[in-house]
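Worked example 2:
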Amino acid sequence: MSEDEEDEELDDLRKKRTLQLQRRLAEEQQRSQMAQQIEQQKQALLRQILTEEARRRINNLKMIKPEFVAQLELQLIQLAQAGRIQVPLTDEQLKELLSKLQSTKRDIKIRRI
């Protein structure tokens, strides 16, 4: 193989790799934009479902238990769309709902003997 052929082959490989990287970057950007749109839609729905005080409480909880709050937000949206909760949900109603959810949790206590 001559040096020119090797250079051409190397250039072809570089171009293929560059195209692959560009495609992967475009896909990542698209996924990121979709995730942002979904989050914006979710927040818009929550603004309709919750009062200002209730949203503040959820935002405070999000700092401590982000996974729990993510599930809670989805459940609230589903309940509101099904008409199973009164909209807008006040802070007091949210506290009651959270206490009910907390009471269903099993407490684990360790005693030393």
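The radius of gyration is 25 Å. The chain has a mean pLDDT of 91.
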